[in-house]
């Protein structure tokens, strides 16, 4: 039996209770819409959702890519320079105590309300999980494998390319997964600070006009986008590091 | 008398670690390896056998002494001898073929595909070249490690407990097979093991090491004629040699 079976049944049950209670207690639609109303809202505001999704998704993906590249390069640089690592790594950890959203007004001052401020914010949020995981992955490489390549006369670069980099990729992908979830979320929130288009703006507008059914529809849609993005990254991972998943699957079946 | 291909002279190795006391691991170790010879080094666990091989392979420096390949010093120089480590070390992200050609990949050398294919056949691995390490048995990985060490084409092959992790039957088979390969290819091999039978079975000479710090305490000639079959294991000469070694190791 599929592992989603029980959660799906339970969730459907909750939805039915919700529907019945809302109708029974005559709760106003602006306060809590019934699930059927939310589905209807999807149908009615489909074109609006699509219109705003393009912007949000572009921000999220572009910011994610920028953050990932930056995080990757940072981890690699730390790998090649101990001094750089000693200087930067503690600062990097401390920087994470700053709630990213409080930086947003600063970015608006420097870069305005356009897309660039949002891209920078998303990139700043996304680079961290990638950088930290990647760094750990590079350090996790099996000592025996390092010894092997070294004994064959391998240079530092060869050791990096043949052992450390492949060993770090599973870590990289688990970092990327976290970053992908952050990317969509950050894109939406960054739009609250100021934007002319995007799901975040649509969300705020719907909320302010008490179109609660649409608010629900947007929330569900945003979650759905995040899931799709994470799923895409998993597929990418399975294709890029098949050996890792082969070992994982092996362990699961044991 | 043939010239030694590998010469280790009074090598002393001290581990210095800031938070631990200095530890002398090797104390004036000297040994020779002639061309086409199999030489065993046996001793109790933690007597510095693996460290000795690490020093010869250039993976770690030494504090005193000389290590020479032909006439060149190979102290702190990697890539001059083949080294098969204790565990069957394979890159899990490379299939068998890619693992075997690693010595070429590491040094950016063109891969002699036909030679590799022929050797894979000899080593009984030709059907598994596209498999990944996780999909192979321990015995296969062991043979693959050996093949990789062999294709690197160095004169001297260092083996660190090459068959230690295998079960008795597989080990017996692989020892057989290994001698067979050696008979055909005539490599110069320095073999480190804690298994007396393995050492006697394979070696022309055996050095006995004592523990803490590692010293060579005896050198024993093993003159069973080659090619060796199982028969010599049943001789009284074998038994007395084994007893002698046991006593030496036990101190």
TrEMBL record, chain A:
Keywords: Cell membrane, Membrane, Transmembrane, Transmembrane helix, Transport. InterPro entries: MetI-like, MetI-like_sf. CDD domains: TM_PBP2. Residues 53-237 form the ABC transmembrane type-1 domain. The keyword 4Fe-4S does not apply. PROSITE patterns: ABC_TM1 (PS50928). It is a multi-pass membrane protein. The chain crosses the membrane at residues 6-25, 57-76, 88-113, 119-138, 182-203, 215-233. It is found in: Cell membrane. Belongs to the binding-protein-dependent transport system permease family. This is ABC transmembrane type-1 domain-containing protein. It comes from Candidatus Gottesmanbacteria bacterium RIFCSPLOWO2_01_FULL_42_22.
UniProtKB/TrEMBL annotation, chain B:
InterPro entries: AAA+_ATPase, ABC_transporter-like_ATP-bd, ABC_transporter-like_CS, ABC_transporter_ATP-bind, P-loop_NTPase. GO terms for molecular function: ATP binding; ATP hydrolysis activity. It holds the Pfam family ABC_tran. The keyword ATP-binding applies. The keyword Transport applies. Keywords: ATP-binding, Nucleotide-binding, Transport. Residues 6-236 form the ABC transporter domain. It comes from the Bacteria. This is ABC transporter domain-containing protein.
């Amino acid at each position: 039996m599929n592992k989603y079976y029980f959660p799906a049944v339970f969730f459907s049950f909750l939805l039915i209770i919700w529907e019945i209670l809302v109708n029974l207690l005559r709760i106003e639609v602006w306060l809590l819409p019934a699930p059927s109303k939310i589905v209807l809202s999807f149908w009615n505001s489909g074109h609006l959702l699509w219109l705003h999704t393009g912007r949000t998704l572009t921000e999220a993906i572009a910011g994610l890519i920028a953050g990932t590249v930056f995080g990757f390069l940072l981890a690699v640089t730390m790998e090649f320079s101990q001094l750089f690592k000693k200087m930067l790594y503690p600062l990097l950890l401390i920087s994470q105590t700053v709630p990213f959203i409080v930086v947003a007004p600063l970015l608006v001052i420097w870069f305005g309300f356009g897309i660039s401020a949002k891209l920078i914010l998303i990139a700043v949020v996304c680079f961290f999980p990638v950088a930290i995981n990647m760094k750990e992955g590079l350090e996790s490489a099996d000592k025996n494998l390092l010894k092997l390549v070294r004994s064959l006369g391998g240079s530092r670069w060869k050791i990096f390319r043949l052992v450390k980099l492949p060993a770090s990729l599973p870590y990289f992908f688990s970092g990327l997964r976290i970053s992908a979830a952050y990317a969509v979320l950050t894109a939406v929130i960054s739009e609250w600070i100021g934007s002319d288009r995007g799901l975040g703006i649509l969300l705020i507008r719907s909320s302010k006009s008490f179109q609660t059914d649409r608010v629900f529809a947007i929330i569900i849609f945003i979650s759905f986008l995040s899931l799709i993005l994470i799923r895409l990254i998993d597929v990418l991972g399975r294709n890029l590091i098949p050996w890792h998943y082969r070992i994982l699957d092996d362990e699961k079946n044991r | 008398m043939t010239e030694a291909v590998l010469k280790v002279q009074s090598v002393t190795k001290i581990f210095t670690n800031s938070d631990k006391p200095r530890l002398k691991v090797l104390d004036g170790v000297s040994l020779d390896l002639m061309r086409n010879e199999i030489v065993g080094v046996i001793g109790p666990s933690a007597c510095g056998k693996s460290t000795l091989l690490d020093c010869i392979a250039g993976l770690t420096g030494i504090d005193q002494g000389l290590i020479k390949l032909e006439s060149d010093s190979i102290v702190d120089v990697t890539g001059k001898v083949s080294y098969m480590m204790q565990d069957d070390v394979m890159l899990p992200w490379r299939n068998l073929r890619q693992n075997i050609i690693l010595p070429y990949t590491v040094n950016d050398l063109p891969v002699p595909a036909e030679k590799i294919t022929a050797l894979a056949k000899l080593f009984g691995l030709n059907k598994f070249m596209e498999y990944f390490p996780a999909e192979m048995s321990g015995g296969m990985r062991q043979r693959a490690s050996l093949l990789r060490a062999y294709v690197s084409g160095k004169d001297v092959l260092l083996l660190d407990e090459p068959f230690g992790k295998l079960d008795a039957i597989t080990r017996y088979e692989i020892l057989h097979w290994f001698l067979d390969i050696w008979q055909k290819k005539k490599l110069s091999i320095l073999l480190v093991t804690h298994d007396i039978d393995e050492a006697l079975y394979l070696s022309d000479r055996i050095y006995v090491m004592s523990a803490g710090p590692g010293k060579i305490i005896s050198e024993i000639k093993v003159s069973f004629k080659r090619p060796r079959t199982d028969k010599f294991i049943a001789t009284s000469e074998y038994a007395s040699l084994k007893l002698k070694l046991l006593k030496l190791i036990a101190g």
